[in-house]
Amino acid sequence: MLTETPTTILFITGAFVSNKCWDEWKVFFENKCFKTLAPAWPYKDAPAEVLRKRHPDPQIAGLRLTQLIEHFENIAKKLPEKPIIIGHSIGGLIAQILLQRNLASSAIAIHSVPPQGIMTFKFSFLKAGWGPLGFFTSTKTTFMMSFSQWQYAFTNGMPEEWQEKAYYESAIPESKLIVRDTITSAAKVDFHAPHKPLLLIAGSTDHTIPESLNYSNYKKYTDKNSITDFKVFSDRNHFVLNQPGWQEIAVYIEDWISKLPS
């Protein structure tokens, strides 16, 4: 997409990972003549190693989904034009909510946490999510995935040395409250309302957000005059943004954007 004023892409990170996961994506899209920004979540503007040393971090622990949505809403509102929003996991949920609020020209939700009311009882989803929900533990402290939890929830199917590298470069402590808030009215979307173009992307081997959950999310949107698309990539886990071969997904997204009506 070549324009005199490059279109801005706002990348929104998911839970448990550093916003540095978008670094290569930013380079990819900047080479396609987009402006990009991938701001950190509140209290997380530091390298992953630094954030891990702060665990259990009471500031991050107190973060709620409504605050997080407001944080990215304010960023979107300050841009000179409505951005394209690309979000992963909880970032994909926020992308859908900001699209609903007419703050994006289009949105791409990658392996998105679904809005309120969409659930699955698939075993992998329950197993991956049990620890982060932090039941029977204090919400005043952050949750930090163990390496074995990371292997199951994010990097399943990858060689162990890659899993270790990903863990030390990306894994960070998280608010248990944020995770719990995703099943409340804070995550509500009106699936019948008209909306700007939306692309939902799923991965066939994602334990945390199974393909079937993304498909249920897609099928909830009912406005026939709005563009709502769905795409599955095989052998993609929840570490999809930095899993080898991520470029294939970036190319697909760029092509999808280029074909949208002006």
TrEMBL record:
UniProt domain AB hydrolase-1: residue ranges: 9-244
Pfam family, one: Abhydrolase_6
Top-rank taxon, per record: Bacteria
Protein name, as recorded: Pimeloyl-ACP methyl ester carboxylesterase
Organism: Flavobacterium nitrogenifigens
